[in-house]
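Because discrete structure vocabularies remain unfamiliar, we reproduce here a specimen of the format, pairing a chain with its fold in token form:
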Amino acid sequence: MKAEIIAVGTELLMGQINNTDASYMSKKFPECGVFVYYHTVVGDNAIRLENCINLALSRVDVVVLTGGLGPTQDDLTKETVAKALGLKLIFHKNILADIKAYFEITKYNSRNTIMTTNNEKQAYYPEGSLILPNKNGTAAGCIIEHQVDGFMKTVILLPGPPWEMEPMFDEYVIEHFKKKNSEGLKSVYLKMFGIGESAMETLISDIISSQTNPTIAPYAKKGEVMLRITARYDKQTDDADKILAPVLDMLYKRLGQYIYADIDIEMKDVTAKLLIEKDITVSFAESCTGGMFSQMLTDVSGISNVFTGSVVAYSNEVKENILKVKHSTLENYGAVSSKTAVEMAEGIRKLCKTEIGISITGIAGPTGATPNKPVGRVYIGISSEKVTESYEYTFSGNRDKIRYYSCLHAMNILRLYALSKG
């Protein structure tokens, strides 16, 4: 089935918030046999919204609208959908009861939330709607199946806030289509680090050009690449794993040295899992990254079991007085050097009494370069009781990119260390 996602909200058009809803749904829809062909963003204007709905109904089977389900006058999604489909708006007592219960639960929180009469508007939905309860807000969603010009169309209304939309989409929308479709889809995500998108495609160009089922889709993000391998299968007769296996075997033979995960997961999560499972304690000393590396790892729940702390050693005085980097090292080799990175890593390991110490020092720019050390020059140190060494990199790009790439490479060094522990 072909789908179009219509995000409703002037704030999206003005760039005040990002349209993360469309990205989230587009990634997950293929799991249930729905493929997104179009993304549309429209402001809070009934005429333009109706035009978008009619266009979508003319070219896809499934139309999903996010946003515009609130209590205010500019929340027009339900009214406009009802008009486009020729349906009445029906009052739902149970929805109003849910809204009242939500306000009763939240009235004591810091927002001092109270229900007002305009919230009653949220209890009206187009006739024939399958109501999707909202456990995280007041705007219920709905699924409408309706014939348009002789063709059955599915129109789905979901709240705009991601913390409301995502659980509703996962619990109700995905399951709705899984039950309807006899054809199943199973995807494997090969996450890679240390190879660029063009180099990766060159290594597997023959596999991509001959693909039928499963299909192979490459993706790139900052510093990483990913392949999504998707098999279509009949739920009654086929084994998805058997369809995937031959292609996965070929891809692992060509790209195995770069693959760090076979699910859609971040490197920080893979690294944290390894550290926790193997009880490897770590600490960080950061200069140019200013705590970014520590933040990246502490995004993962449970990491406190092994991560003891970090020092943001931006100045030479902190490097020398807290991390015990030798004054002669800083004077002779500079703060951005292999020698300093090594001593920073060793210093933080001893200070925090951890198995591993990781350091990052570099020139993130746009100023600070020297003839021998350009903007983007970064040294990453790693220290254990047995070995202390450093790695040199020169990254291109702006300050944010250089700092992010530094953290990503440091995370990979830490991951490889954890893997080597058996």
